[in-house]
Specification:
Strands 1, 2, 3, 4, 5, 6, 7, 8 and 9 form a 9-stranded mixed β-sheet that branches. The relative contact order is 0.10. The model has no long low-confidence stretch (mean pLDDT 97). By secondary structure, the chain is an alpha/beta fold. The chain has 2 domains: 160 residues, 3-Layer(aba) Sandwich (Rossmann fold), CATH 3.40.50.720; 119 residues, N-(1-d-carboxylethyl)-l-norvaline Dehydrogenase, domain 2 (Orthogonal Bundle), CATH 1.10.1040. It is built from 14 helices and 9 strands. Bound molecules: NADP nicotinamide-adenine-dinucleotide phosphate.
């Protein structure tokens, strides 16, 4: 299967690399062309537009920052849809709202192209290791066809039915994650502000029922209160909160805590922490 890969950010670059390692023929494009160089060194072909990627692929995967970025590579003369031939597939793994995916499906179907949305859970390290959780929905035929590739990027792949379901599932998942991360930052601020040993605080958390891998990974980084490499950019977490709150409004579900968490992330964004890791929200809390 010839795979096109558009969007070589933190996640996309490692996901594409895993496909190359697995022996797929991969053609890439990225807005900042420099990021294609590393993939080319690993064996990828480089195309000069999303359309050119699509023209030589059986399936095009996109891993974009947000809904606007998805539209910018999907639409127009140089977009993915313009280059795809009937019978091929378009697989969007970006975290977006259901409406964006439904529109992608509509545009794909208009051209006789199959569509699957497949957002992921897991960050930089699972993307590198090929151990993401992949939530897919849309055209079952494209899911079946793409499974060998999805299994090279993830350790668990779920099919969730109609297009839109995977986007909604991913937003519900990140709502939980952002709340847990914020609670960890507040707990840490309270522990350290009241003179407690933060290593002991983390040990207590890790010994009980709320122990989890995220606390184990981010806890020491937050406790150090220094800058650390970005795994999940804070700007993307705020985007996910915004989309989750919009979904909640659509279905009439109040989200009391998530609304407050979103305000905190908006403040962190306004203070210039957008490119930092999402755990940088602790810098706002500590102030
Ligand atoms: P990232 O490093 O910020 O990469 C974003 C990608 O989108 C880059 O290729 C970027 O191109 C491209 N892009 C942004 N705006 C664009 C535009 N207007 N036109 C064309 N290209 C544009 O993000 P990431 O961390 O890889 O995340 C990608 C997606 O996965 C997001 O939806 C995120 O929410 C989701 N996700 C991330 C993680 C994580 O831990 N990082 C985990 C799960 C899900 P340039 O290189 O030119 O900027």
């Amino acid at each position: 299967m010839r795979i096109g890969f558009v969007g070589l950010g933190i996640m996309g670059s490692s996901m594409a690399e895993n496909l190359i390692k697995a022996g797929f023929q991969v053609t890439v494009w990225n807005r900042t062309a420099d990021k294609c160089r590393l993939l080319a060194e690993k064996g990828a072909r480089v195309a000069d537009s999303p359309r050119a990627v699509a023209e030589c692929s059986d399936v095009v995967i996109a891993m974009m920052a947000n809904p606007r970025a998805v539209e910018s590579v999907r639409d127009g003369e140089e977009g993915i849809i313009a280059g795809l031939k009937p019978g091929t597939g378009y697989l969007d793994m970006s975290t977006v709202d259901a409406e964006t995916s439904i529109e992608s499906a509509r545009l794909a179907h208009e051209k006789g192209v199959l569509f699957l949305e497949a957002p992921v859970s897991g960050s930089r390290q699972p993307a590198e290791a090929g151990t993401l959780i992949i939530m897919a929905s849309g055209d079952r035929e494209l899911y079946d066809r793409s499974l060998p590739a999805l299994e090279k990027m993830g350790k668990k792949v779920l099919f969730l039915g109609d297009v839109g379901n995977a986007a909604r599932m991913k937003l519900a998942n990140n709502l939980v994650m952002s709340g847990m991360l914020t609670a960890l930052c507040e707990g840490m601020a309270l522990a350290s502000g009241s003179g407690l040993d933060t290593a002991q605080f983390l040990d207590v958390l890790d010994s009980g029922a709320i122990s989890n891998p995220m606390f184990r990974l981010k806890g020491p980084q937050i406790a150090a209160n220094k800058e650390f490499p970005t795994a999940f950019p804070l700007k993307h977490m705020q985007k996910d909160l915004r989309l989750a709150l919009r979904l909640a409004e659509e279905v009439g579900q109040p989200l009391f805590v998530t609304a407050a968490v979103n305000e905190l992330y908006k403040k962190a964004l306004a203070e210039g922490f957008g490119e930092f890791d999402s755990a940088a929200v602790s810098r706002i809390i500590r102030k």
